[in-house]
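Project outcomes to date are best conveyed with an example. Our students and postdoctoral researchers have been running inverse folding experiments weekly, and each run begins with a structure described purely in tokens. The record below, which covers 573 residues, was selected by the lab manager from last quarter's runs and is presented without edits.
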């Protein structure tokens, strides 16, 4: 996280899908040397994952990469669930407290292209046609053998390795890790085609019936993604075709346009006219995950660590977010600025989230395709009642959008009670603030938290009250803040000493205007107070003046600086 690149062996990232690209982006932004290889000679042209959730969009914004995604993607603000022709539930994303209250649909191939272009601007090029042939871990590095497309081999010694090489990960196999879970019995169909409907273009639809499941997701300009189960029955085939892994070339005869039309006609009681089939395949849905995300100097991420149903568009987002969780931790340790135990928190934080994703997506798939029994009763009788309850709708929005992801039980959190605001371990929300002063000679003025936070650094936000004028109440629109608080200033100096060249400190206060929610709305009303935001956009610690300041110093010493001891409250977690 220093301004200059570390003199260290590179991190080897195997697999240039969204997860591997995101990991390389996180490390390169922190000036950590990276090599990103992929055995495929060209990027995969097939459309696989298509949904980008609000939380992932927020993180792309903080990496200064959001604009091309918004320009090329298609925004869907409403989800509809039908059963046997009746709409059971409608979920709109507008109430989400984010700048991105929607699901953005974009071909994975485009997502990969945009990430690859951004990586190039950071000095990292994807090495294609390069395969990892063998590796062996040592105490200080890994011995790895690479083979290029022309047969030439290369020996290298990466400091760490990230396995982002997909559902059939060779690294996972060579490590002997269990990939526990199950395969769903059904064969599924995947197709990209043009569809004319009577629905708004910002809505997607899921249809359940006794014949099976159909989902249609708008991609813009009339293009749709079709996902369905039991598709082979419509083909009149006695033996299902060999399923293809989504994103790989189809095996055996791929579903035809006629088959897609017949399937929709039987299961969708709405007008849907389809044409121009661009790509299709059969595939099986697995629900599996590893029991360890770290083996020595090797970390697993993305499909190499977990695979599951495409329901709710969680897979690619989960992989990108765990890559960003791991990246800043590797940067601290490789730079000699943090203890090795910081890397263990990658598993501690992300493994429970992966387990929850598998449970949720598996349950959604089962309840959506149930044609009899308790699950069908739950879908058709109970779900409409539950969907009408405001708190449950809010919880569903937050879960699907991944805004509810949190690390409150992580040892990296220091929580103190404040008057409102996000708790330690939760995402740092955006807010409109008046900057009193900041790093890099930042002049006072109005800004947003997301604009101030740089994912190559920690951000320490010191929330100070506006300056009272002539004894009048504090004015949220004041252009100046109260005089510096000596305790907060001492805290800032201590944190900067512990995290040299790795933290940016901002003194901010309340303001008013357009451009984001108010500071008091997003971060509570306690003044003065502090929030320490991790490079991946989650709050590591919060508190107020007094004993909380000493606690923050100890917290930073223990986890983000070399030589500190683990606080008692952390060892008990």
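After processing, the design step wrote out the following sequence:
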């Amino acid at each position: 996280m220093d301004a200059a690149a570390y003199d260290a062996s590179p991190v080897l990232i195997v697999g240039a899908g969204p997860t591997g690209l995101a990991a390389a982006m996180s490390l390169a932004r922190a000036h950590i040397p990276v090599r990103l290889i992929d055995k495929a000679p060209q990027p995969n042209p097939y459309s696989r994952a298509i949904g980008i959730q609000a939380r992932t969009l927020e993180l792309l914004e903080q990496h200064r990469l959001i604009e091309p995604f918004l320009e090329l993607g298609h925004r869907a603000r409403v989800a509809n669930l039908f059963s046997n022709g009746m709409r059971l539930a409608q979920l709109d994303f507008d109430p989400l407290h984010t700048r991105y209250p929607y699901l953005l649909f974009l071909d994975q191939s485009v997502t990969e292209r945009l990430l690859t272009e951004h990586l190039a601007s950071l000095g990292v090029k994807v090495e294609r046609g390069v395969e990892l042939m063998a590796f062996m871990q040592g105490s200080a590095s890994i011995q790895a053998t690479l083979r290029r497309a022309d047969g030439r081999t290369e020996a290298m010694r990466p400091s760490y390795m990230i396995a982002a090489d997909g559902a059939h990960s060779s690294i996972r196999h060579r490590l002997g890790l269990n990939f526990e879970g199950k395969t769903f019995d059904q064969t599924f169909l995947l197709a990209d085609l043009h569809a004319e409907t009577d629905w708004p273009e910002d809505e997607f639809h899921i249809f359940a019936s006794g014949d099976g499941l159909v989902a249609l997701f708008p991609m813009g300009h009339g293009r749709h993604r079709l996902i369905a189960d039991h598709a082979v029955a419509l083909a009149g085939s006695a033996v299902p075709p060999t399923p293809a892994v989504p994103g790989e070339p189809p095996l055996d005869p791929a579903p035809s346009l006629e088959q897609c039309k017949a399937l929709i006609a039987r299961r969708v009681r709405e007008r849907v006219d389809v044409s121009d089939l661009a790509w299709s395949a059969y595939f099986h849905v697995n629900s599996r995950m590893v029991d360890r995300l770290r083996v020595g100097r090797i970390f697993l991420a993305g499909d190499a660590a977990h695979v599951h149903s495409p329901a709710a568009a969680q897979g690619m987002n989960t992989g990108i977010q765990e890559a960003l969780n791991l990246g800043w931790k590797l940067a601290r340790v490789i730079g000699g600025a943090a203890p090795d135990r910081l890397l263990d928190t990658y598993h501690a934080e992300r493994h429970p989230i992966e387990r929850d994703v598998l449970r949720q997506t598996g349950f959604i798939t089962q309840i959506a395709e149930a044609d009899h029994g308790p699950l069908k009763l739950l879908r058709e009788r109970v779900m409409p009642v539950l969907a009408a309850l405001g708190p449950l709708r809010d919880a569903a929005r937050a879960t699907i959008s991944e805004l509810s992801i949190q690390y409150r039980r992580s040892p990296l959190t220091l929580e103190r009670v404040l008057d409102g605001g996000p708790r330690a371990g939760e995402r740092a929300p955006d807010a409109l603030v008046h900057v009193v002063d900041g790093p890099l000679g930042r002049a006072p003025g109005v800004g947003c938290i997301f604009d101030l936070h740089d994912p190559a650094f920690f951000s320490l936000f010191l929330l100070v009250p506006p300056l009272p004028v002539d004894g009048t109440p504090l004015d949220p629109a004041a252009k100046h803040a109260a005089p510096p608080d000596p305790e907060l200033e001492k805290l800032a100096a201590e944190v900067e000493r512990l995290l040299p060249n790795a933290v940016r400190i901002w003194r901010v206060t309340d303001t008013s205007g357009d451009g984001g929610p108010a500071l008091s709305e997003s971060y509570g009303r306690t003044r003065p107070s502090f929030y320490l935001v991790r490079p991946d956009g989650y709050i590591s610690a919060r508190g107020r003046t007094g004993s909380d300041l000493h606690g923050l110093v100890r917290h930073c010493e223990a986890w983000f600086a070399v030589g500190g001891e683990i606080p008692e409250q952390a060892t008990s977690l």
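DSSP finds 16 helices and 26 strands in the chain. The chain has three domains: 11-50+107-178+291-368, 181-286, 432-571. The training component of this project remains on track.
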